[in-house]
Design goal:
binds zinc ion; alpha/beta; DNA damage; Rcmb_RecR_Znf; metal-binding; DNA binding; single chain
Length: 199
């Protein structure tokens, strides 16, 4: 599509890079931005830059945080003998929303996907092993998604964690095959945590 407006075309190209945004939606969003007041667009632009500047990864679990250590790792009332391994902070939040789980987390920042060039070294696995060397962790819950990548990650985690002799479990019950944790409802996730099976 030629709009004879390089700046508008540039905006559409940038929007197209966002996940789940196709050509039609990108066009609609760009025209919506055109109609929106300067102040509102400025606020949107500034809030995008602000998260990039302020949001860090927790130095312990790699959850998103605005401090060096996230609020979960700081919370001394949580059970530090159990770590739930998730793909990203949205999955962590989905489990937190159930209010049932009181252990700690480890965010891998992705899942194994050789076709996209994501191997074990791109995930926070070395950091997890380092956390385990302290000896206080007794159980690992693998709560990666039920997609092909999430399952491959769970299999890989089993391979490297099993020899450590920890209790190793995988959430199971009720979560849809191919499903993303972040889209599941709270009751389903709570049941999946309860019904976890030993790997
Ligand atoms: Zn943390």
């Amino acid at each position: 599509m030629t709009l004879k407006s390089p700046s508008l075309e540039k905006l559409i190209r940038a929007l197209l890079k966002l996940p789940g945004i196709g050509q039609k939606t990108a066009n609609r969003l760009a025209f919506h931005i055109l109609k929106t007041s300067y102040e509102e667009v400025k606020e949107l632009g500034e809030s995008i830059l602000e998260v990039k500047k302020k949001i860090l990864r927790c130095s312990v679990c790699f959850n998103i945080t605005e401090d060096s250590i996230c609020h979960i790792c700081k919370d001394t009332s949580r059970d530090n003998s159990i770590i739930c391994v998730v793909e990203d902070s949205l999955d962590l939040q989905a489990i937190e929303n159930t209010r049932e789980y009181k252990g700690l987390y480890h965010v891998l920042e992705g899942s194994l996907s050789p076709l996209d060039g994501v191997g074990p070294e791109q995930l926070r696995i070395t950091e997890l092993l380092r956390r385990l060397s302290g000896g206080s962790v007794k159980e690992i819950i693998v709560a990666t998604n039920f997609s092909a990548e999430g399952e491959a990650t769970a299999m890989y985690m089993t391979k490297i964690l099993k020899p450590l002799g920890l209790k190793l479990t995988r959430i199971a019950y009720g979560l849809p095959v191919g499903g993303d944790l972040e889209y599941a409802d709270e009751v389903t996730i709570a049941k999946a945590m309860d019904g976890r099976r030993t790997l």
